[in-house]
Design a protein that fits this description.
The chain is α+β, with helices and mostly antiparallel strands and 215 residues long. It has 6 helices and 9 strands. Coenzyme A binds next to strand 5, helix 4 and helix 5.
């Protein structure tokens, strides 16, 4: 993504690689692919705007597109959200988000993700979470990572637990009444896991100022 005078948006230089996956920061050009692959069982932001004149699939596409624009358009070092497109052997299989909603005060990241159904249950969910954790605990200097999932989402909680997250507390979702399990991973547990050795993190230096960090 080369821009005017050779300058491009610094976030788009970030690239993460694991044994089986390649993660690049989502661009507008990725949206049609993401729309086409979006799993039906994925719950999208329940607070997002819905449009009476659009059918359900078109509203889901709108939530995804506006979520992408909001993430990069509303970016600040105090509250950021970084969407990645996940590829396996060059083919898009899912998306992985890393977020720092109160970044400069607590150095804590949150995350969310999805995979197309055929790619699930093979360890790829864990690899893509590990990829963004290597970015967070590595060059971004995070102190902790949190996550949450409804109590019966065994795959999402399985990814968290397999990477060393511990249960913290539960809460109830206002819009659905479902119970949410919250989990947390601290820096010491991440460092001891050795997972960072299995992730290649590239192109972060130019983006550090956007996280409030010195290049
Ligand atoms: C959540 C998701 C990204 C996880 O990715 P995945 O590739 O299926 O998970 P992995 O294969 O990496 O599994 C990681 C761990 O979870 C466990 N796990 C995965 N699926 C499981 C299931 N259905 N039931 C129980 N455990 C499961 C695995 O056994 C593994 O743990 P282990 O190493 O201790 O054996 C994927 O399942 C998905 O896209 N789900 C639908 C969207 C979604 O719910 N996203 C999360 C919203 S918060």
């Amino acid at each position: 993504m080369e821009g005017v005078g050779g300058w491009s948006w610094p976030l788009h230089g970030i690239r993460l690689r694991t044994a089986d996956l390649d993660l690049t920061v989502m661009t507008e050009a990725d949206l049609p692919t993401v729309w086409a692959l979006l799993p039906d069982d994925l719950e999208l932001n329940p607070h997002a705007t819905t449009y009476a004149g659009l059918d359900v699939p078109a509203n889901r596409r709108a939530v995804v597109a506006q979520g992408y624009w909001r993430a990069l358009g509303m970016w600040s070092p105090d509250d950021w959200a970084l969407p990645f497109v996940v590829r396996s052997a060059g083919v898009v299989v899912g998306a992985q988000w890393l977020e720092g909603p109160d970044w400069r005060s607590d150095r804590t990241v949150d995350s969310s993700s999805w995979l197309v159904a055929r790619a699930r249950g093979r360890g790829l969910g864990r690899q893509m979470r590990a990829a963004v954790l290597a970015l967070a605990f590595g060059p971004l200097g995070a102190e902790a990572a949190i996550s949450s999932a409804v109590v019966d989402n065994a795959a999402s909680l399985g990814v968290s637990r397999s990477l060393g997250y511990r249960d913290t507390h539960r809460s109830v979702l206002e819009h659905s009444g479902q119970t949410l399990q919250h989990v947390r991973l601290d820096r010491a547990t991440w460092d001891a896991s050795g997972w960072s050795r299995h992730v290649v993190v590239e192109g972060v230096d130019a983006a550090l100022p956007l996280f409030g960090l010195d290049p």
